[in-house]
Each structure stands twice: as structure tokens, then as C-alpha cells.
């Protein structure tokens, strides 16, 4: 459906987009995820033909957008970062105006606009001035504008920016529904957003692709980190000492008291070492019962930091403040206590 090949966009010496290639399948909801300045808007502006690339090509249904601007633009609806709304028009006037602008003839205008307003739920404000609408409603009008002419592809640049949590949920819901009949590319710097809406994610950072996969697969790829949390009833210092002494433990960190009589800990072990039985035995001997133990799944946030960490020279995991980690001296003497304490279990 959409093929992006080796796209480069330079602003002077600065490469905003640096050899980006990916494809988008028909009917897919694809997310472009990256921090501010990653090159998301630039990529989208090129996809929609608003900006020309320094090099590389974009094909829509096999047609190059530069060679076939009219045909390809008809296939694409675009919600830019700043939707060009005419705030002194009513919603209905504005959508009629866009209809004329896009020369969307051939369709029954009234019916078409009514369907769009219904889809994004703005029928009840059709005759209100855009200036008087809330940010959430304005964003829906922006979406409606992109849908005029019934394009197959919708390109939505940060569609939930500036909305309150309720409005975010509503817009996501609208996007998911649109995804049933459209190919959607949306950008976001919010991980939960792409996780909630997209089937596939392209992570970009500094103009380069850091990873492409489904949100689930991205989580799986990096989930064998041998990292888990546990809840222990007992003294914090003793638990840290005992776990820290276990061979194969990279670090142990207290996460603080989550329940009245217990403390949570985060442990990371060396790859391919199962330290759990040793931790269990060690704590049991000291009469420090483990109340729960579970693997820590990486959130997309962890993954994002992981795949971009090389460039930014920072700690791999979002939730760990390096300075607070109890660094464990490698391979302390294993405790050779006698077994008499086991009666305490
Ligand atoms: P994003 O949408 O991911 O936040 P952008 O595509 O807007 O990122 O910007 C990517 C990079 O290109 C940034 O470093 C930005 O400063 C630069 N950039 C964007 N637009 C221009 C422009 N018109 N002139 C010069 N540099 C630009
Ligand atoms: Mg942007």
C-alpha cells in the first residue's frame, strides 16, 4: 500500500530524516513513535507530499508521489500537527469548504459529510463556530477534514496532543474505528498511545529507525532480561544483603514498602542464571518469607529506552535510577550456614 524507501531529508547539515525505509500494509494502523525532534512530522509531511525529500521515494499503491501528485494526494487524508481550521466558520461550513478544496466531487456531498460527522461524533456541533469548540472537538473536526473525499490512507500527526485524558480516550476510540476501513499512520511521542492503538510500531530516533515490530513482539524481544520483583516480609537491610550475596545476581534494589509488613525488591540476574531457588533458600534460612515473586515485563518505555540507549548513553531501564542501585560486589562468599534454621520455616 505505502512504500517508503531510503527517505532522507536534510535541513542544511542536519538530517531530520536519515535513510528511513518501511512499508505500510492496507488496513493497518501503524505508529511512528519517537521523542520530539525525531523526524516524525518531517516524515509525514513527505508522505503527504507537503514537503519534498532530499532523496529516497514514497510509493502509494505503486505510484510515486512526486510523479503522480494528483492521484496519490486523493488517496491520503492528513491531520497535521496544527490542523488548518478556519475558526470563524461553523463545522458544517468548514467541511463544505474542504470538500470544495479537495474537489471531492462524484460523491453525494451532504451524505458524505453527514457520514464523516457521524463517524467522528461531531454531528451535534455541526452548526457551531469552530472557534467556540473545545480542543477535543476541534481535533475531531481536524480528523473529519482529513476524511473528506474518503481517502484510503489517514495520516495523523500527534492526534491526541493537548487533549485531556477523557478526550484522549475518545479520539483513540475514533482512530481504532477508522482503522477498520482505512490504512492509518499516526505519530506519537507517547508510548502508551501506540501500544493502545497500533498494530505495528516504527520507533524513530534522530531521524533513524531504531526498531519496527508489533508492540507485543517488541516487548517479547527484550523480555528475557532476567529481571523480577519480589515482596518479602522482614528487614530491608538483611534482605538486600542476602540477595546481594547470591551468585548470579547483578543487582538488587529496594522498591520500598508497598504493604504494611513487607518490602518490595527488584532483582536482575546474569543472563541464563536462575537465581530464584538460591534467593528462596537464602531468605528462608534467615526467616524472611517471600510473599510473592514475579517477572518484570518490559513496557514499551523500557524498550524505547533500550533501543535508543546506545545513542543517548544512559541507563537501559526507565525505572532504575542508577545511583540508587545496590551494586553487589561480584561473587561474595556464599553463606555456609548450618541447616538448623530450617526449623523456622
Ligand atoms: P518530530 O515531529 O518527531 O518532533 P520533526 O520532524 O518536526 O520531529 O523535526 C525533526 C528535526 O528536523 C528536528 O531536529 C527539527 O529541529 C528539524 N526541523 C524540522 N523542520 C525544520 C525546518 N523547517 N527547518 C529546519 N529544521 C527543521
Ligand atoms: Mg512532530
Automatic annotation (TrEMBL):
Keywords: ATP-binding, Nucleotide-binding, Transport
GO molecular function: ATP binding; ATP hydrolysis activity
Pfam family, one: ABC_tran
Domain named ABC transporter: residues: 2-231
InterPro entries the UniProt entry points to: AAA+_ATPase, ABC_transporter-like_ATP-bd, P-loop_NTPase
Domain of life per record: Bacteria
SMART domains for this protein: AAA
PROSITE patterns registered for this protein in UniProt: ABC_TRANSPORTER_2
Gene3D superfamilies linked to this entry: P-loop containing nucleotide triphosphate hydrolases
Family to which this protein belongs: Belongs to the ABC transporter superfamily.
Protein name, entry field: ATP-binding cassette domain-containing protein
Species the sequence originates in: Congzhengia minquanensis
Amino acid at each position: 500500500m505505502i512504500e517508503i524507501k531510503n527517505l532522507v531529508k536534510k535541513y542544511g547539515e542536519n538530517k531530520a530524516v536519515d535513510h528511513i525505509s518501511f512499508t505500510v500494509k492496507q488496513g493497518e494502523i501503524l505508529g511512528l513513535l519517537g521523542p520530539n525532534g525525531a523526524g516524525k512530522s518531517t516524515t509525514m509531511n513527505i508522505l503527504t507530499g507537503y514537503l519534498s525529500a532530499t532523496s529516497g521515494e514514497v510509493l502509494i499503491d505503486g505510484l510515486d508521489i512526486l510523479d503522480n501528485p494528483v492521484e496519490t494526494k486523493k488517496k491520503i487524508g492528513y491531520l497535521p500537527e496544527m490542523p488548518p481550521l478556519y475558526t470563524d466558520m461553523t463545522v458544517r461550513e468548514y467541511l463544505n469548504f474542504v470538500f470544495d478544496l479537495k474537489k471531492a466531487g462524484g460523491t453525494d456531498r451532504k451524505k458524505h459529510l453527514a457520514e464523516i460527522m457521524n463517524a467522528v461524533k461531531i454531528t451535534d456541533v455541526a452548526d457551531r463556530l469552530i472557534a467556540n469548540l473545545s480542543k477535543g472537538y476541534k481535533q475531531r473536526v481536524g480528523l473529519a477534514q482529513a476524511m473528506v473525499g474518503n481517502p484510503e490512507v489517514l495520516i495523523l500527526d500527534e492526534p491526541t496532543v493537548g487533549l485531556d485524558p477523557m478526550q484522549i480516550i475518545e479520539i483513540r476510540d475514533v482512530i481504532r474505528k477508522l482503522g477498520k476501513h482505512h490504512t492509518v499512520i499516526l505519530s506519537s511521542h507517547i508510548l502508551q498511545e501506540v501500544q493502545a492503538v497500533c498494530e505495528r510500531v516504527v520507533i524513530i530516533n534522530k531521524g533513524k529507525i531504531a526498531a519496527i515490530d508489533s508492540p507485543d513482539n517488541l516487548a517479547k524481544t527484550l523480555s528475557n532480561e532476567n529481571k523480577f520483583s519480589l515482596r518479602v516480609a522482614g528487614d530491608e537491610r538483611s534482605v538486600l544483603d542476602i540477595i546481594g550475596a547470591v551468585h548470579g545476581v547483578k543487582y538488587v534494589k529496594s522498591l520500598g514498602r508497598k504493604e504494611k509488613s513487607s518490602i518490595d525488591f527488584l532483582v536482575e540476574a546474569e543472563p541464563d542464571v536462575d537465581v530464584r531457588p538460591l534467593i528462596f533458600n537464602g531468605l528462608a534460612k534467615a526467616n524472611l518469607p517471600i510473599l510473592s515473586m514475579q517477572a518484570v515485563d518490559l513496557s514499551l518505555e523500557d524498550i524505547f529506552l533500550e533501543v535508543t540507549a546506545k545513542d543517548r548513553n544512559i541507563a537501559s531501564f526507565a525505572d532504575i535510577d542508577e545511583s540508587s542501585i545496590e551494586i553487589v560486589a561480584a561473587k561474595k562468599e556464599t553463606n555456609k550456614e548450618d541447616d538448623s534454621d530450617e526449623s523456622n520455616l
